Description:
Strand content: 35-45%
Distance between the termini: 13 Å
Radius of gyration: 14 Å
Strand order of the largest sheet: 1-2-6-7-8-5
Oligomer: single chain
Shape: globular
Order of helices and strands: HEEEEHEEEE
Helix content: 10-25%
Number of strands: 8
Number of helices: 2
Largest sheet: 6 strands, antiparallel
Amino acid sequence: xxxxxDAAALNRFLGTExxxxxxxFRVEAVTEQGVQVRLRVGPRHLRPGGTVSGPSIFALADVAxxxxxxxxIGPVALAVTTGSNVDFMRKPVAGVDLIADCRLLKLGRxxxxxxxxxxxxxxxxxxxxxxxxxxxxxxx
Length: 140
């Protein structure tokens, strides 16, 4: 049976396996559908004009799907993104963290597909929507 991970376990995993970016992300909740992840927006996430950069939004969506998968299958560090599509819909609210709500649409033996809505904290209008496909390495 797969080892399920709660928010605390996922945050510990980020802290030990991805030390260089662990401070940027925090799992807020593990849900029936997936996870909710926060991007702690700081100066390094901004582009000229003071808005959050596209690569930072992409990273949030990618991390959210990755962590949603791990919440179901356990700490598999080598699961990797194989496909992605991001629609940037509006400028994020300045100076506010971003929240990603990820819903796993499929979790198979070798592929997982997730859908992510990214919003500025406190604003229900999506900043971006992402679809991500992941390859899951075979269990030994």
